[in-house]
Amino acid sequence: GNSVTQMEGPVTLSEEAFLTINCTYTATGYPSLFWYVQYPGEGLQLLLKATKADDKGSNKGFEATYRKETTSFHLEKGSVQVSDSAVYFCALGVGGSSNTGKLIFGQGTTLQVKP
Amino acid sequence: DAGVIQSPRHEVTEMGQEVTLRCKPISGHDYLFWYRQTMMRGLELLIYFNNNVPIDDSGMPEDRFSAKMPNASFSTLKIQPSEPRDSAVYFCASSLARVWGSNEQFFGPGTRLTVL
User: Fold this and answer.
1) Angle at Cα B4 formed by Cα B2 and Cα B6, nearest 5°?
2) Checking DSSP bridges between strand A109-114 and strand A11-14, what pairing results, if any?
3) How remote is the C-alpha of B92 from its chain's centroid?
4) What is the pLDDT of residues B65-77, one digit of tens each?
5) Which pairs count as long-range contacts for B80-84, CB under 8 Å and 24+ apart, including other chains?
6) For chain B, counts of helices (H) and of strands (E)
């Protein structure tokens, strides 16, 4: 079946530190991969996505590369800010003939950035 | 576009009362999802619709929960009777089906429900 596994949090970093949040997946078909971010008191919003192997999604200094050989989509940022404190969700959607319309979400990883 | 609209944003009610949450998806989207988020259980998919038809309601916790989508621009999630353990943030999301590629979902701001 389809599933997503994220590293457990919370992740606590100092401002300007390097961030990695690990995400691995299992999927049938040809999944698209997503990172969503949820700021306190808000809904989830799309941070970045990749629709095929070796694609790199990027936004607001965050990057993630779709690695089919390792079934991974790790989120990285070179220098985090206090404003990046949020919960980050990795997700996959299966397209093509296996498309159910659903996204499969990981359990979320809380990031806390201290000044 | 205004995005996904949910109402009310906050609801406080007493145990045993009926609660109705409302959602207006993004115009033109053909999928609508209802999620529940709690600290203990995280983000859970309750039910989703495609072209106003319920596709999978296996996440609905029990018969007290029901959802409808009478037309493409409106959906409701009803809890009757409500219980304290239903306290959570309920999110609605919508998406547009694609033959190939992403199923990006757009989330509403959520309804924070407190059942006393």
Assistant:
1) 115
2) parallel
3) 4
4) 999 999 999 999 9
5) B80/B18, B80/B19, B81/B15, B81/B16, B81/B17, B81/B18, B82/B13, B82/B14, B82/B15, B82/B16, B82/B17, B82/B18, B82/B19, B82/B113, B82/B115, B83/B15, B83/B115, B84/B15, B84/B115, B84/B116
6) 0, 11
Greater pLDDT, A97 or A94: A94
Contact A99 B97 (CB under 8 A): yes
Query: At a CB cut-off of 8 Å and minimum separation 6, what does B7 contact?
Result: B21, B22, B111
Residue in B33, B55, B101 closest to A95 by CB: B101
* Both tokens assigned to B91: 């999110």
Question: Chain B residue with minimal CA distance to A50?
Answer: B102
Given the structure tokens 């029901």, which residue do they identify? B66
Q: In chain B, how long is the greatest CA-to-CA distance?
A: 46
